[in-house]
Amino acid sequence: MKVEEESPRIDVETAVLSMTEDQVGESDAKSASTVFEVSQLNVYYGDFCALRDVNLDVTQSEVTAFIGPSGCGKSTFLRCFNRMNDLIETARVEGQVRYHGVDLYQSEVDAVEVRRRIGMVFQKPNPFPKSIYDNIAFGPRIAGAKKSELDDIVERSLQRAALWDEVRDRLSDPAYGLSGGQQQRLCIARAIAVEPDVVLMDEPCSALDPIATARIEELIAELKTDYTIVIVTHNMQQAARISDRTAFFSVQVTDAGRRTGELVELGATEHIFTNPDDPRTEAYITGRVG
Amino acid sequence: MSNTEETRTEFHQLMDEVRGDLVRMSGLVTEGISTVTQALLGNDIGLADQISSGDDEIDLLSVEAEEKCVRMLALQQPVAVDLRTILTDLRMISEIERSGDLVANIAKGIGRLQGVELDPRLRGLLDRMSEQALRLTSRAMDSYLDRDAGLASALSDLDDRLDELHNDFIETVFSSRNDRLITTQQAVQLAVIGRFYERIGDHAVNVGERVQYLVNGELPEHKGAQRARARREQGDVS
Questions:
Q1: Residue of A nearest to B216 (CA)
Q2: Helix or strand run (H / E) with residue A204
Q3: What domains, with CATH codes, occur in chain A?
Q4: SS3 state of residue A261
Q5: pLDDT tens across B7-40, in order?
Q6: What is the extent of the structural domain holding B117?
Q7: What is the CATH number of the domain that holds B96?
Q8: Interface TM-score (ipTM) > 0.90
Q9: Contacts of A284 in chain B (CB under 8 A)
């Protein structure tokens, strides 16, 4: 029996660091600030094409929002950025998602390391059934943080997520005792505790009331100085309020009734919401297409 | 996209209502220009008095249209072409309402000219200024209704013609005064009336600029603003 040699694994962080040292000086300003370059991306579930031919860049320290009708593939696309689609058995990704120049879908790339650097916050707050403290300390512990460092990491992460003042006296209480908005900020604190580069957010406010939503939006505006944020939202006004750039995805429905998503337009948010280039974007955001 | 079902119909109906209000306002202004000129040339004080009631109607329509715009901004969070339309509507309400005021001002001036027999040259120029002001007002509304940026930008050329007529008119007023055909007070009154026609043209040009914004999404660059911006960029804020 032939034993195949194991492929060498690429450490994304090392790749990024080496690129920063060796290549940034040579590359132009645009590529230095480009976190993701997506080219000719197709995503399939079995033989069904859910997303077709997406080309898009994500820029560092910006908030990029994805909007579009249900079924347009925006959440599917978001999951491509940290290989969450790997966890769906039938999902298949074609094309390239380059992260600081490294193709995330090379077989050698470690998906776990990818997800550490590219964190995610989901639609519904999903704290672990543990204390507030342990929710935040969970990731750093696995990453090898020393016990003496944990207190500092927990405090810093909770402060960064604007939750510290509300929970500092009850860190050992169960996370489930927090309100929905607090739980979501806890999840954001948990995501940033492992010092990611990018935070992906999949409709992070859809389960929250307007005040909790406003707090998360304020938090996103603060976080973007340190992190690149990509957010999927059904709330167009939210995209308009918080994002620097907006991408509009649409749906093509085949004769057989199958829906394939496509990127229609990506542009500065102000441009998209005042004078979009594509009539399909205008029709969607003005409610002339259901 | 295959699904073309329209949503937010109530909102879009309200936008249509405002468009209708603007059409009525503009129609009252054009009708007013024609009537006030008839009253001026016919020295018809009774007709001039009727014109101020037309202005009340324009004022009412402008208040109602503005209230609808405020409601839409507050409640509907308009974006893209809807946002540009409502912003354009708000500016147009002011421009057209102001034109209505100018028509009423001309009507008031007729009373102060009572008994003056106007020179045929002055009558001819007033008639042509009136025609040009009317044409500008109605073309401005056409450009809005047809979303015609080309026509909207052409309004400033049409206005140049009105400005030339206005200059001719002022010169003729002065020569009539020099020939002692009219008194100084009447000359001033006529010059002011000429200025009112000329200003109606300027408001139509302003409407055209807003229509260009509506169609292209680009705000008109004003020369003064360009100069101030250049000064600001050079750090000269004095």
A1: A275
A2: none
A3: 34-127+200-217+230-285 (3.40.50.300)
A4: strand
A5: 788 899 999 999 999 999 999 999 999 999 999 9
A6: 10-227
A7: 1.20.58.220
A8: no
A9: 1
